[in-house]
Amino acid sequence: MSEPPLIGAIEAGGTKMVCAVGHTWREVRDAPVHVVPTTTPDETMSRVLDWFAARHAQTPLRALGVASFGPIDFDADAIAATTPKEQWRGFRWRRAIAERFGDLPLGYDTDTDAAGVAEWRWGAAQGRDVSVYVTVGTGIGGGLVINGVPVHGLLHPELGHIYVPRQAGDDFAGSCPSHGDCLEGLASGEAIAQRWHRTGPELPADHPAWDLESSYLALAVVNVAMIASPQVMVLGGGVMAVGGLLERVRDKVRTAVNGYLPREELRGHVDHYLVAPGLGSSSGVIGAFALGRRALDASLAPSA
Amino acid sequence: MSEPPLIGAIEAGGTKMVCAVGHTWREVRDAPVHVVPTTTPDETMSRVLDWFAARHAQTPLRALGVASFGPIDFDADAIAATTPKEQWRGFRWRRAIAERFGDLPLGYDTDTDAAGVAEWRWGAAQGRDVSVYVTVGTGIGGGLVINGVPVHGLLHPELGHIYVPRQAGDDFAGSCPSHGDCLEGLASGEAIAQRWHRTGPELPADHPAWDLESSYLALAVVNVAMIASPQVMVLGGGVMAVGGLLERVRDKVRTAVNGYLPREELRGHVDHYLVAPGLGSSSGVIGAFALGRRALDASLAPSA
Q1: Is the bond into B71 cis (omega within 30 degrees of 0)?
Q2: Which residues in chain A are contacts of B164 at CB distance < 8 A?
Q3: Which candidate from B161, B222, B231 shows the least CB-CB separation from A153?
Q4: Pick the CATH number of A124-276 from 1.10.260.40, 3.30.420.40, 3.90.1150.10, 3.40.50.1970
Q5: What is the ipTM of this complex?
Q6: Which residue positions in chain B have pLDDT lower than 50?
């Protein structure tokens, strides 16, 4: 059996770009990644693409996949003008990569859509018709994956920007530049840092921050469950990785749903409903690999 | 060309059952409907099924479709034990209809899923990959339709039971028996009646009730847009039919999104995004027709 094609994967975040290559998702998971800080598009992209060009010179890449911060305007094929990353407004992945790699097949989607696809194919959402991946990190985002395909619809989900009830006694104005006290404004890593003047990992487990954080995230989970009815929700990101938070969210979801949906996943078995990523912190870069591989397969399919 | 098969349609609501027959959706829309009050299952169903039996004796029905209140436990093939309609807990559509009509093909789904399918096929959501139908009446519900198929996932969406921020000065406890001040508890027809001691249609257009109502509904619309990213949302139901409410909701959605999603549907063209049902108040019964027709087609398809 011949070796599968080599795919390049870029997880493009607001603070760093994580780059990897692999023939399989396991290789991507286990490969040493190359990390480039996200600064200006010119500087960042030349460093990112130099690295892939060096890999490409050794063994030709057959496709690239990008899991990118957003919002992404798929119609315009560009990072949306409303991204808080001002220098990246209007940035075009397709054009930037074509300038260096010509017509190398490229697949790109949001970071959370990509991670959702990876969790569906190889992680904690395998076999589920409807799944949601949420990341709680510096920002909050999420993707809805139905039968393995990320739902785009009008644009793509922007789950961090829902509104949830403010908890009693919380008078923090909220950190979202667009919405103030939307979920991201109240419960993202940035919100935690602004509210408590410490980062999540610096706050002790018994700090009141965690009661508040888990309350907001539980309300978000309930809203997602009531609107999109996923069979599983994968909760990833740096804030979610703080010890004990997932368990607190589970407890509060059970209380908030109050038995209304007759499914054990929202009652006794909420630990099977709200789960950590099966791919650990690699869902995004493995998702980028999946997008690249899918773009390659599409490029090889006989045209209609 | 032969006449299409005759299909029976039941829109099963908490206060009444709307029954119709037709060969086409237009016939169902235009046919005189038969209305039976929803009391006990025995009493209601014998009256409903007597009526269909009389139609069946004239021209044989080829299938029945039911658009039912919920929650529905599809795995158990029954109305869920958590429905507020206590006498209907555990009621089985399939069994009740089989007792009178044998193996007549039956399609059933929630009322909002059915209405969503009808609006997608023949109404205001035609041609959209991702659409949402919301009803604001005695209760609040909604269905998510992707490529014409209602998303069930864990159970089915229960959009009325999301949590949204309470508006300043609103100290009404909420009317939802399960959740208190979820969206349904704050903004359903029942909530309006409990809060203002008058029904929606009795409240004048300049009553503060409408400012509050439109605020809650706008927050719900934003949450749906951010989680499921529909290309259109159809807003139906008795409360939504009150003059001026849809326009108020549109204004507040534009403000709440604050330009974040780079789509004109959520900026200048929100009147193309938040729309009244194309099928008027008939979405539910026409949806039941669509479910019946789909069940017939499935019964005729060669088995795998």
Answers
A1: yes
A2: 163-165
A3: B231
A4: 3.30.420.40
A5: 0.96
A6: none
